[in-house]
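Async update (no meeting this week)

Hi team, since we skipped the sync, here's where things stand on the single-chain job. The sequence we agreed to prioritize is pasted below, unchanged from the tracker. I ran it this morning and attached the output directly underneath so nobody has to dig for it. Comments welcome in thread, and please keep replies under the output.
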Amino acid sequence: MNIFADMSDPATRTQDEFGVRVSARLEEGARQLPHGISERLRAARMRAVAQRRVVEVQFAPALSGAQVGGGQGQGHQPGFWTRASALLPLAALLLGLVGIGALQDQERAFELAEVDAEILTSELPPTAFTDPGFLQFLKKEPQE
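Output:
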């Protein structure tokens, strides 16, 4: 029996019903066993139930409302610097992302400028790059 279960929860009811059915099936099978084996099983069940540990759940107090020092003395609210230091990693992350974005934009601009400079200083006029036969020209080996 689970004393902490919420019986209005359908999942809990389904689990409890399943447990009852499994228990009934095990009891039915245990009746068919010889007396010596069933007594050993009963003794093992009793030992298992006696050794079962009950786990108590303890929640840690939140930092904002917790008393410092494990409840000894007076608690205090975190100061400005404590709150500011909690936001420091977020600020560093945002600055890093902005910096990376700016560097990538700058690199793209330099690459485009380099391509534009090569197009404008090449032997071909810029209209040649839009010509459908330009691909054939590129495939042809340069003659020198």
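Quick observations from my side:
The chain has a mean pLDDT of 77.
The CA atoms of residues 29 and 116 lie 85 Å apart.
Reply here if anything looks off.
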